Amino acid sequence: MDARSRKLLGVTAGVALAGVLIGFYISGYLVGNQTPFTPQAHGSGSARSVNLTIQTVAAIGPKLAPHPNWVSYLVRDNGGNWKRSTIWTLPANTIIHVTIYNFDGASGLRNPFLGQPQGLVGKELVDGKPLGAMAPDQPSHTFAVPELGVLALVAPVADDAKNPCDFAPCAMSMAHRTITFTFRTGKKGRYRWQCFVPCAAGFVYGFGGPMQTVGYMDGFLNVV
Amino acid sequence: MLAWIVLSAIATPLVAIFLGPAIPPGNGSAEATQQVFDNEWLVAVCTPVFVFILLFLGYALVSFRSSRTAEPMEGPSLRGDARIQIAWIVVTTVTVLALAGFGSYELLQTGAGGGQGPSAAFRPTGYAQALDVQVIGQQWEFTYRYPTFGGLETPHLMLPANTLIRLHVTSLDAVHSFWAYQLGVKADANPGTDNVVYVKTKGPLSFDVHCAELCGLWHGYMFDTGQVVDQSRFDAWIKQQRSYFSPVAKYLPPYSTTYLPDPQRRAG
């Protein structure tokens, strides 16, 4: 191999290596190096169900993520601890009972139409009361799986609430709202979920940063 | 030259008859059918050119191939040939201008399924009776409003069969693009702009809806399935949707061709 060929081979290998590293960086940024969380299923057959408990916080805080000021979802693992993961593995054709503890205030919807729960099994409950629709300036967040037609509204903590939680992890003694709803997963597949409320403070139109990064206000349902 | 004429005479009708109709988007709407017709003509015109290039390539490879042992040598210098130059200038000019005229004529008919901005210049016959349907892009979902049915908004797109539809495509945030593949419709969804598209549906079918403009994290997941259904089924569906979404109806803004919602609270 002459010098020119060696040089060409070296440049090609360098470019390929750079490409791989850039790919790893982008994929790592997008999924936030998360490990998928698999909640325990109960029962079997048509009676099988999963309880999924999550919380929303105004800021993820310095202990859990590289962007401490970003708004985020957290999930409670099978040991009862709050974990930063928005990729959840769920069984197919199964009833999922979701409880959301929201510690965040109102942000408001850009499209008022998204203020009505959709695609749920039964009614969404906010602090135990059924929700028909929410005024567009009220939602703090949404939990939406567009491919499944699922949309749930997350009611806000009042601006003047006592003992608010500034950043995660938030204790249950702090001001929060409790949202419960149920949906069915359907067939196997990978479904993205997202928040429709422009809640990313400090970003253009509220839709940058945590709204564009898996691990904060977006994630996947791996339905298996 | 003779080989080119013979091969073109054989290949052109074959391509027009068998390949042309197989080119997307199909026959889901009058506009889609028109696009297929356009594609048939385009591939038919391209075929003789393609055959000529292939033949000349083969001819050049055979005729100008040098021996492996012979030293490479420069060929004889070329001198201008007025007849050839005039011939290729005339042929290419006529071909390009004819295609431009054909394309413009086709576009002038109904807009060919493309967005025409707020004041559509190319309106099909009977446009005044067209059914208005609004397409609203937002990160990351399309929703649809039906102004003739009380401003109903729904996450599903359903259209009546054999009906002229006037789509008003707009966005609430980033630039999206509404692409209803089998209907042959594609129009940008720009915030603050009413992008009008006409489409004449045919029989019942399902069609794919995609966002065709990179619009953020979930752009690749911004897809949906629309349906063209019989009028009776469409009427029943409208009734069902109005009932289902009645709780949120009081919060919807009055129907407008565009919406420029203020960033809410902390979304600066």
3D architecture notes:
The complex is a heterodimer of chains A (224) and B (268). Chain A has 224 residues and is an alpha+beta fold. Chain A has 2 domains: 31 residues; 189 residues, Immunoglobulin-like (Sandwich). Chain A is 13% helix and 29% strand. Chain A contains 1 helix and 13 strands. The longest helix of chain A is centred in the N-terminal third of the chain and has 29 residues. Chain B folds into 2 domains: 85 residues, no CATH class; 123 residues, Cupredoxins -  blue copper proteins (Immunoglobulin-like, Sandwich). In chain B, helix 1 packs antiparallel against helix 2 and helix 2 runs antiparallel to helix 3. In chain B, 26% of the residues are buried. The interface between A and B is large, with 42 and 29 residues.
Spell out the key features of this protein:
heterodimer, A: 224 residues, alpha+beta, Immunoglobulin-like, 2 domains, eight-stranded mixed beta sheet, three-stranded mixed beta sheet, 29% strand, B: 268 residues, five-stranded mixed beta sheet, 5 helices, 22% strand, elongated
Overall average pLDDT of chain B: 90
**What is the structural class of chain A?**
alpha+beta
Number of beta-strand segments of chain A: 13
Helix content of chain B: 25-40%
CATH fold assignment of the largest domain in chain A: Immunoglobulin-like
Number of helices of chain A: 1
Rg of chain B computed from alpha carbons, rounded to a whole number of angstroms:
26 Å
Per the principal axes of the C-alpha atoms, what is the gross shape of chain B? Answer: elongated
Average predicted local confidence, pLDDT of chain A: 91
Helix content of chain A: 10-25%
Give the H and E element order of chain A: HEEEEEEEEEEEEE
List segments of chain B where confidence is low: pLDDT < 50 over at least 5 consecutive residues. none
Strand content of chain A: 25-35%
Distance between the termini of chain B: 68 Å
CATH topology of the largest domain in chain B: Immunoglobulin-like
Q: Biggest sheet of chain A, in brief?
A: 8 strands, mixed
Structural class of chain B: alpha+beta
Q: What's the CATH C level of the largest domain in chain A?
A: Mainly Beta
Please give the CATH architecture of the largest domain in chain B. Answer: Sandwich
Query: What is the CATH top level name of the largest domain in chain B?
Result: Mainly Beta
CATH level 4 superfamily of the largest domain in chain B: Cupredoxins -  blue copper proteins
